[in-house]
Amino acid sequence: MLPKKNPRSGFFRFLIGFVSQPIFGIGAILLILLLMVWRGLNPLPGTNSIYLATSTLSIVVDYTPLSTPERTEPPAATQTPEPSPDITPSPTNWFGVPFTIGYSVEGRPLEVYQFGNGPKERLIVAGIHGGYEWNTVVLAEELISYIMEDPNVIPPEVTLYILKNMNPDGYAKAWDATGRANANGVDLNRNFDAEWLVDWNRDVCFNRVYVTAGPEPGSEPETQAIMSFITSHEIEAMIIYHSAGLGIFPGGSPPGPKSQMLAYYISGITPYAYPPKDIGCVYSGAMANWAALQGVPSVDIELSTHGDTDLSINSQVLEFFVKPELNLAP
Ligand SMILES: [Zn+2]
Fold first, then answer.
1. CA 320 – ligand 1 centroid, Å
2. CA 36 to centroid of ligand 1, rounded, Å
3. Do residues 188 and 129 lie in contact, with contact meaning Cβ atoms separated by under 8 Å?
4. Distance of alpha carbon 180 from alpha carbon 127, whole angstroms
5. pLDDT(6) > 80
6. Inter-axis angle of helices 311-321 and 257-268, to 10 degrees?
């Protein structure tokens, strides 16, 4: 009977036989090379190089770990820049820098330029009739440049605000009668809450393009923005620029005494007519009349034409208008 065969005895015999062979050295070297390749493919985590040593050779395998590229997160839409703590605004940083008081129907900003920081606040508004009276906007830009070239025009007791374009949508639409209304077809100077009417006698008023007064007083965003600005400030006097050729209209219905004095004084230093030309139009919903109801003396000034800015005339109006001692008592 044959002894039970040990299942491992065959392997041991093979191993003993193998190591006793002359090619043992070749087998050992193959084994070391296989180990090196395996370590290279399976590096130790966190190591950049694998140091392999045998009694006969040492190899440093450079290894650059595959890394996930840094993800660049897109900036969040609401991200607010950190304020820089060491920028201290100087008193003149805001001089001539516009701020936005609202937006037009089509989303254009209504920008007010502030000059000076005194307690006596004055306001100039241009562009209420958009592209039809584009020269009033250009005049406002020229007056802004005039002040920036000589900031001393503004006395320290005074703050002057200039809303340079109250109807930017009409201004952007066309520089003719079709640019008079805002983007809703509303004549902004018929939209204020002052003897507002849904319709009026168009035979004797502007009628080159059909415009409305809006569905109700103060319906338009441009109207709302300037109403809010005026009622949240202590405006002592306001000039609203128009064109063309009819003269100076005092605010109020009937005209307020202080508005009349403002018109009277300005007529004394300009060629503009006062009393204005009467074309028979009854101006419902007018901004100057609304301002007078708020106690703000106001005038509409009509430039000579639809194309000239009359800068030399209106720089004189500006210098008069910002006098601290502007006394409009009759
Ligand atoms: Zn006008």
1. 23
2. 90
3. yes
4. 9
5. no
6. 130
- The number of beta carbons lying within 10 Å of the beta carbon of residue 95 is 16
Write down all domains in the chain, each with its CATH number in brackets: 26-40+49-62 (no CATH), 98-321 (3.40.630.10)
- Six token digits for residue 323: 């006098």
Instruction: Look up the pTM and report it.
Output: 0.73
Distance 154 CA to ligand 1 centre (A): 27
CA–centroid distance, residue 221 to ligand 1 (Å)? 18
CB contact at 8 A, 282 and 201: yes
User: In angstroms, what is the span from residue 50 Cα to ligand 1's centroid?
Assistant: 84
Give me ligand 1 centre to Cα 147, in Å: 24
Dihedral angle over CA of 229, 230, 236, 242, nearest 10 = 100
Q: Which of 319, 329, 328 is nearest to 158 (CA)?
A: 319
* Per-residue pLDDT reduced to its tens digit, 62-89: 444 444 444 444 444 444 445 554 554 4
